[in-house]
Design goal:
Strand order of the largest sheet: 1-8-7-6-5-4-3-2
Number of helices: 10
Distance between the termini: 32 Å
Strand content: 15-25%
Structural class: alpha/beta
Largest sheet: 8 strands, parallel
Order of helices and strands: EHHEHEHEHEHEHEHEHH
Shape: globular
Amino acid sequence: MRLDLPPIYPITDKRLSGRSTHREILRELIRGGARLVQIRDRETPVAELLDDLRRSVELAERHGTLLVVNDRADLALVSGACGVHLGQHDLPPKAARRVLGPRRIIGYSTHTLGQVRAAARLPVDYIGFGPVYRTATKTDAARVVGLDGLARACRIASVAVMAIGGIGLSQVRETLEAGAESVAVISALMRAPSLSRQMELFLDAATGTR
């Protein structure tokens, strides 16, 4: 069954948000209407991160929100998260599927049309594609694909496509109209004084009510 991605896909960042835990970020995002959230953290010591993840999973389950962990299939498994999002240089999706089993979500980052085609042979539930625009969040970001590249990726993808990379409020509609099912947001959301209000604004932009 094809995974139904929500139109806005928030990715957490404690440093950008100024919050001390992902659980705190998650609570605000849920209040703003988030239904699927990715927790991204490559800096926090693993024991501390695992405790935060477990508390975040408990909160997400109470509110019916799906929680995905970036990079780490092991942490997704032991925390009880709904799944993992993998990059091109992380644990391969086939290995992650053996770790997580058939029910958990696996997302997979792609940056070229060749990678999109290759993902059709992998046990993934959705792919990320980008960066669509220039982004300051990742210093090692791949080459910008633009809206035309995104549209081509969406046409050939065998699973749902989540667009990522430099997407702000003013780019949400054109990104979705290019064919993406979902739009990942990081900086333009995490830097907002009120995460819940900014989440609401992104959802409004996705539906054209803003």
